[in-house]
Prior knowledge:
By secondary structure, the chain is an alpha+beta fold. It has helices at 13-34, 39-65, 69-90, 93-104, 106-111, 114-129, 136-161, 198-208, 213-232, 238-243, 251-283, 295-306, 311-314, 320-335, 424-442, 457-460, 462-471, 474-480, 492-503, 506-523, 533-545, 561-564, 571-587, 594-605, 613-618; strands at residues 164-167, 180-182, 185-188, 337-342, 355-361, 365-375, 385-390, 393-394, 400-401, 404-411. Helix 1 packs parallel to helix 3 (69-90) and helix 2 (39-65) runs antiparallel to helix 3 (69-90).
Amino acid sequence: GLFGVPELSCPEGFQQAQDKALQESEQLVQKACSIPPGPETVMIFDQLSDGLCRVADLADFVRIAHPDFAFREAAEEACRSIGTMVEKLNTDVDLCQSLRRLLSDEIVMSSLDPETRRVAELFMFDFEISGIHLDEEKRKKAVNLNVRILDLCNEFLTATHLPNKIDKHVLPEHIRYNFTAEGNYLQVAGLHADCPDDLVREAAYKIFLYPNAEQLSRLEELLASRNSLAQLVGYDTFAHRALQGTMAKNPETVRQFLEKLSDQLSKRTQKDFEMMTKMKMKLNPQNSKLMPWDHPYYSGVLRAERYNIDPGLYCPFFSLGACMEGLNSLFSQLLGISLYAEQTQRGEVWSEDVRKLAVVHETEGLLGYIYCDFFQRPDKPHQDCHFTVRGGRLRENGEYQLPVVVLMLSLPHSTRAAPTLLSPGMMENLFHEMGHAMHSMLGRTRYQHVTGTRCPTDFAEVPSILMEYFANDYRVVNQFARHYKTGQPLPKNMVSRLCESKKVCAAADMQLQVFYAALDQIYHGKHPLKKSTTEILKDTQEKVYGLPYVPNTAWQLRFSHLVGYGAKYYSYLMSRAVASMVWKQCFAQDPFDRAMGERYRREMLAHGGGKEPILMVQG
Ligand SMILES: [Zn+2]
């Protein structure tokens, strides 16, 4: 069956797997409630979580990626029923009581190792979010708020992608063909950010971002509900709650981080905007004021003008085989780890082009498995992604449960004439996702609750972004980039051109991200908000970004990450800052330094989410 799980040889198997998991979980709940508080309590909680996650995480992947609808549907159902069970457990007073007894027993707690203590606290945190420590009335309120928030999130998310319609006569005739016609209306489904025609981008921006009253009230209710829930369970704001346990720890640190970043960027951002303005003046002298819809387009023009980085020039040097060889060689030099292709059993994979890699350490042996689902196929989502299918943990019998992950990319298939060739961007993404996979493989945590990438959001991207630095280093690239026909290495000046091109307008691009992150913080900060979300957007945009706010637009209504990253949108920036520091201090001098590789593994990767992230960074 799928991933070697015997039941999952057919869609119906999900029902069996799910029933088995639910049954086991009930037994474990009883056990947890009946034993005296001690390290075993945490062990049982983790076992409980593992049994449910092993089905839910696997199903979560299958429902997205399986080509067979029946499998997707069965997996969806399994996700739902496990999700319901998890909610039930998170509000189970007896179960919570068993953990609380442990946490309040100072003598037992002080005898536990730091990882076990942290995991116990993390489990408690899950209980608290559902308001379990509240009296009956408040708990009911918390449950209702949770339900309402979930609905609002789904509705908001859906509406962020919906097109806006406009009477076609409003637009000049010569640009109408850019949009989908529907009778007398035109549909504007996005920002058309790369369109060379300034007028098309302007029209798309103003129409696509035109405020929708329903979506506006949805957002306001979502933010207010999140705030109420956070306050109900004892936090000042939603941001305070969301940031507990992260690297940043609290909104104040995030604010300082973003401010500092913004200060350091501001001069360079100004320069970038000046360059873009000059370019706009050259191409469109009548109307040269730089507007928000110009930023992505003109930075692209500048990049292309300065450096010829046509992907077609680079692709032949980045065959998939060469890139994988490069990763293998890098990991073996840095960490003593090799990747071996392993034969799969019948029914183990969901598409015949999926490859299974065994990750093997030179002395420790097999560390885990990576399933590489790299190729495009109909219905497969177009996202590069890392999925944890099974977390690593120490089993009761002393064996280590090996982690299993999937890496999903959308690469073209090979043809008769050429192998799969990656653009520089795809190559960088492959390295990035492989960074997540290595985090999963090398996190040797006792508990799966904190396995590999199950760590604070603002730390999660550190290992993957660090891999991007390797992907852009000539010494690394030179080891594997070979022309697939001639075997010729990628010329050094082409690598430096690529790296230089990334610096063009990089400050302005990052400034935009700082603006989004700042907006996310304010929205999830002190309530009631001082102004409307649109006025806050306007103020923040002018203060933090620099390009003018455009009246009658409301970009925040398209800010889909507010749902999944509420109060944590800064995470990517902070991860990047840490990754950059790690690169400079540990690998910039010698990207193959084994001693540094070992130190990096020991201090950062090995702990997954089992150690306070800031301590890992200090290490
Ligand atoms: Zn990532």
